[in-house]
Amino acid sequence: MSWEAAGHILHMAIRSGTPLLLGAVGEIYAQRSGVMNLGLEGIMLVGAITGFATTLATGQVWLGFIAACLAGLALALIHAFTSVSLYANQVVSGLALAMLGLGLSSLMGRAYVGQPMPYRLLPTPVPGLADLPVVGPAFFDQDPIVYLALAIALVAWFVLYRTRWGIMVRAVGDDPASADAMGVDVYAVRYACVAFGGAMSGLAGAYLSLVYTPAWFEGMTAGRGWIAFALVIFALWDPLKAILGAYLFGATEALQYFLQTSLGLSAPLLGMIPYAATILAMLVAVSETLRRRVGAPAALGKPYIREERVL
Amino acid sequence: MAPEKAPAQLGRPPLVRMIGITKRFPGVVANDRVDFELRAGEVHALLGENGAGKTTLMNILYGLYRPDEGRILVEGREVHIRGPRDAIELGIGMVHQHFRLVPTLTVAENIALSLREAGFFLPAKKVEPLIEEVANYYGLEVDPGAHIWQLSVGERQRVEILKLLIRDARILILDEPTTVLTPKERDELFKVMRKLAYEGRGIVFITHKLDEVFRVADRVTVLRKGRVVASSLPTSSVTPAQLARLMVGYELKPRPRMHPGRLGRVVLEVRELSALNDRGFMAVKGVSFQVRKGEIFGIAGVAGNGQRELVEVIVGLRKPASGRVLIDGVDVTGRSPAHLASMGVAFIPEDRARYGVVPDLSVAENLILRVYRERRFRHGLFLDLQAVREWSEKLVAEFGIATPDVDTPAGSLSGGNVQRLILARELSTRPRLLVASHPTHGLDVAATEYIRSLLLEQKEKGVAILLVSEDLDEIMELSDRIAVMREGRIVGVLGAAEADLETIGLMMSKG
Amino acid sequence: MRLPFGLRLERRLEEEGWLKLAVPICSIVLALALASGVFAAHGLNPALVYGTVFSRLLGTHTGLAFLVIKSIPLLLCAAGLVLAFRARVWNIGAEGQLLLGSVAAAGLALFVLPDAPACLLIPLMFLAGFLAGAAWALLPAVLKAKLNVDEVITTLMMNYIAYKLVEYLIYGPWRGKATWGFPFTDIIPANAQLPLIPGTSIHWPTLLLALAAAGAMFVLLERTSLGYEVKVYGGNPDLARAVGMRPGKIILICMLISGGLAGLAGVGELAGVHKRLKYPWTISGGYGFTAIIVAWLARLNPLACVLTATFMGALLAAGSMMRASFNVPYASVSVFNGLILLCLVAGEVLLRYRVKLVFYRREEEGAGP
After folding, report:
1. Tens digits of per-residue pLDDT, C272-282?
2. In sequence order, what are the residues at sequence separation of 6 or more whose Cβ sits closer than 8 angstroms to the Cβ of residue A203?
3. Chain C closest CA to A25's CA: distance in Å?
4. With an 8 Å Cβ cutoff, are C139 and A229 in contact?
């Protein structure tokens, strides 16, 4: 494999990893606050179609992204309501949301299948750095959303570990009873985190339909929502590790194309790689969890009910 | 020890007045028209047995519960406390029995969490110098960068108190703070409490231990079954016997000592047992002892000294690092809970919520948990539901489990009845060894009495009993021999005759 | 600024019997109402849509038969899911397990035993399908049992891998000779095709299997010690372990049985409906996901699944009709599914809690200085 090819793969890896990174960072916040949202796949799809439709209607790509964020946020709020206020089973509620998102996006997207996207978001190369061999184009000649995703991940890390908000989020997810007793509004924090997660997934979906493909067709996320969910576990709920994980996963997708063109292997067989890699990643995550004694937020998946009488 | 009195506080309204507070939970009235008053500069003890409503009342003051009726006045002004945030703003702070500290966060992060003034950016760093200053002043040393899960129980309590002091709480509520402390740590806590009172703060001291009331409190209010039976009595004007009577409503007669009886063969032998705790530290360090047929062997000690891990190894829930466990001479070290159950080991768990019952299943389905594999409940592959029902109904009658019928979900039973269910389930296997861990924790007096009688009854029948409890009275009342566990080791074993509170207390504390 | 009133949830002492029935029904009604709002927003007249669809669905022979055909795989999958969910093992991989059942049956019929007589071939196909579905659930099961790897994601990923596997087969080695360029396999031989109820397209062997499965799961859960262990483990895994139950065994059995039953459904779809392997989503058609709703709607009671499977089958059939008559994409059935499940899961709160409207007194403006 030539250096040039390696550079191409790297470039692709970062591009494919970007929607995963966005989805994962958002879900990290949700899960850190104690709520798991399995509806990412549906939210991403709704984000994709919302972004697509809005951009076609207004001619502005950025408006499309903003609309997608809002749509994702709104959808996630439904899950927040059932999970946080109504103490529902979070697995089932998340799955319901995924189904709803799938259906809504198909319905909304009826008129847009096959439509071309004339408004583009061009890659913006960083002057000077973009000319470096191999890594130059890969890291410094990408579209703005790639940089945005990276920035969001870095800020998310800083906020989570070095600011008051982050302490509140981690407290709520680890021991909501104590956080409540310390005056933290557990419900508000959880709502906010789940909403943020939805907004990020919406953004990820719009990236797929506006920049990555760009096009709209049913089910275009192809499981990326679930993969982002797995990525959260793989990253041990840390936004920095999520960056690494997302690009690694992106690499599996890039690898797919490379192997197909260079070795002529069957496309569907290669298509299994990202999904098999996800299972492998889960395995790695579990052994890491045992090894480092770092685990999921202790209250993950359990609704917080204040006036609970102990046995 | 004569408490130091604060400078005179006459003429000022009391710090807190709670008037006519009533709080109901499903099936029980936890507080029934309770009046309570706290003055600045005093330590006011709130006395009562488990379930009397003390914690509920203070939870209402702290905003965790909302009263169904009643009013609260702080410094003469009526307030409506809708949540802990309101309480905190009013200067009220509470240290609960179960600490409200987030385990994965550091000390500084926990304290920063409760301190708005620490700001948005890097609040933990900003709070550190403040922590050191206050900690040094009151003698409550702790490392701000340590994660809570790394701290001992006594250290965690220090953090809790620091939290309140850094926020300059004027009204401090301490809920049973001494149950987790060694006698020495308890004395230090009392010193801090008196100092805080001297500064003009008001301290509510929730306890069920009479002697502590007289050691540290200025006045005492007694609750029984949700009602006030004595209000704001100066501790100098009552005797312990009077308080005891108020607490339980009748004279406590000392239980007739059972004859030790003929001790049988060794049922449980533990040799040089060591085990790690969940965090990977050695919690049990080379423990050895024996329990004989017809004997109650009590292990005394403050929670967190390895008792939980020791018990878990004996019942098969935890693999030991080294050492051996033998039942009737057979090596069962490291075997599964199933195997130990088949060897005749029964277990009354400390963590009733976690290991107690399956709440969604019925009482009957819970009762057969140990015996469902036996042939009398089966027709081949299928369960004989009729046999299950008859047997459950018998057990319900025998153990006095209050339930409409055996099909009721176990989750709707009260704490005392759940414990009866657990006992019925475990004892129905006619075990050789019964391991009982804090069996009366959180139960009311009637249930506690019942369970203690039951344990003595089983002892008479020849069951070997390993009793682990923080309640020294309970240990001393029931045990034939008493071992004290401290920091993972057994520091001494006493016969019932030679054991008294002082000796045991000495063994429990450091040095 | 706080509102002068609020809603509080209070825990109930006992479950109200009538609510157990009312909540699912109201959820469905609410979901249908919301869905009609969604349809209206897309320029479809909900009354027209519902009217046409229901009259055709319930008023004609073919409509009813169509309903039954859609319900069969739902019931089979849901029966298995009930078992798994009772143990709190979240098997989301029924889609993939179903497909593997189809693959096994197709392989057997087309390549291994194409000339065997029907009385031999058909039972063998079902057996192979059960084993294939169970095998597809094996990896996630082992990962969970031995290493505590979350089964939601692993079973989901196995779905996608199954899609890719079928794609690989129909585009590659199993591509039919007489398909005019379409990526299908050949039609399976006649002796492999399931017998139908005369006058309809209902493949009755699978129907019987489905009903038997529901009954078997009920008996398993309520009358056997294995079912008892499943219920105990699902209700309190720590206690189950403490009394000596083996979680690994329970997880494995639940996953294998639910995978196997989904595999049976796959055989039915292949040999009774499509008669060849096609695009994977055409065959699995969302049955695996919809079965989750069937199971949840039935409140994890295997016998009630017969009812709820019929209802959701009607919904899926209606979806097909909507696509045919109103050009609505089939995936919009997911709108129904999602809304029903959401309303159901939201409504469940009423089963355990009572809603109280609480009014705050006017002086309450927080604690002043």
Report:
1. 999 999 889 88
2. A22, A47, A65, A68, A69, A72, A145
3. 17
4. no
